[in-house]
């Protein structure tokens, strides 16, 4: 799996560099490129693997993988803003509003979202596939997806009571789950096949991913994760760890990794990389 | 023209209300609906008229008109933020970050951009048309279009010297011109026809529109325009009025209205509504 993850990483970085590099030079473009550098590229890998499972050529999958990572980059830039999570460190570097300004961070995020949708319209993707992808992407991102989850998260900060397990599961299903789900469904969406098995896989992996994040917020090393740790804890935020305990959270992540594995049954041996990913997600240290 | 503008206004408001109404209830959805209410709907009208000139049925044009207005609404919400233009009044009402919060304004803008792209994927538009529209829309909005123009505008505020006429024309070509150009080109884009005449029309109308805005900033009545006037003047910002004088700006707007008229020659009598619009844009008082 690491070979393929590395390959997806390099391909997607080249695609993002080309897309950003085609824009007029200036601070906005610099900030967009900065925000698109690095990252684990798990979402891109999901797109490439799900495409491969459905016989979709790399040339059609790559713009979609780049779109998902550009969208993810926008969401991080906006989430880090002072009015949102107020983070000064991301991937071990100053966040965009710290390095440039809040205005540049807002605009770079906005332009990265446009760029992401534009990538879905790459001629290699095909007309019908582009239409299906754009509709699903808008759903995954907007007022019923990622942005909705982030709004719930912001609201929770000033809520009278900490969130329940049900509420936090719903919130994370939007905030981090929706885009992971889209990435995993990209292959069947392009190929016009049934996306249900990969959607079920992604829902389990997405939640496991978030639980692992909460565990890292408690046990992680800032030098390794490249972002502030202990933040949620200090803020008294409800997390999977605060609700389930550290051992309970680890057990739930393991249970979800097994559920993700089971969801891949229709693909048999061919889904080996996605099986590895589900384990990687809960065992990572960054 | 007023009849058709009124009809487009009602149709587009209904389409936006339906799209926003389909989202999960909450503050985010409320803020999105609030941001989508009102406005002159000139961009929607451009889409509907350009579609009509190319024999595109209303059912295919309407989602595109709604997309353009949702996108315009997002841009206003983000432009009004304290880190950007810091406006507290819009269409005679408190801006989104004043009524709710900066976080909600950032998120509502983000979700409106997603909503806009999603509307372009309406099945009534058609697969190939959706792909052409998404590509052109991303170009009009992102790091080479509207967002780029806004970034130039923000940079100009802290620049050592006021902008030249050439620079301000380039800036406005992005900030307000790019979306107006997209709206006017929507018909040929859907119909896969030559967009050049409507692009030339839109470039002239878009610039005339901005010059009229600058004139209103000097001569306008806050009660009528529904937004703060005299702001640019007070900030010492270069505008078409500061660069050309009031009479010079009026003459340039009139010259551009005539150029817009001339660009419509290939459409003959059928383009009567677009001819009226070009005059309306420079004669408006809001």
From TrEMBL, chains A, B:
It is an enzyme of class 2 (transferase). Keywords: Isoprene biosynthesis, Magnesium, Metal-binding, Transferase. It comes from the Bacteria. GO terms for molecular function: transferase activity. The keyword DNA damage does not apply. Its cofactor is Mg(2+). Its EC number is 2.5.1.-. Belongs to the FPP/GGPP synthase family. This is Polyprenyl synthetase family protein. It comes from Paracoccus angustae.
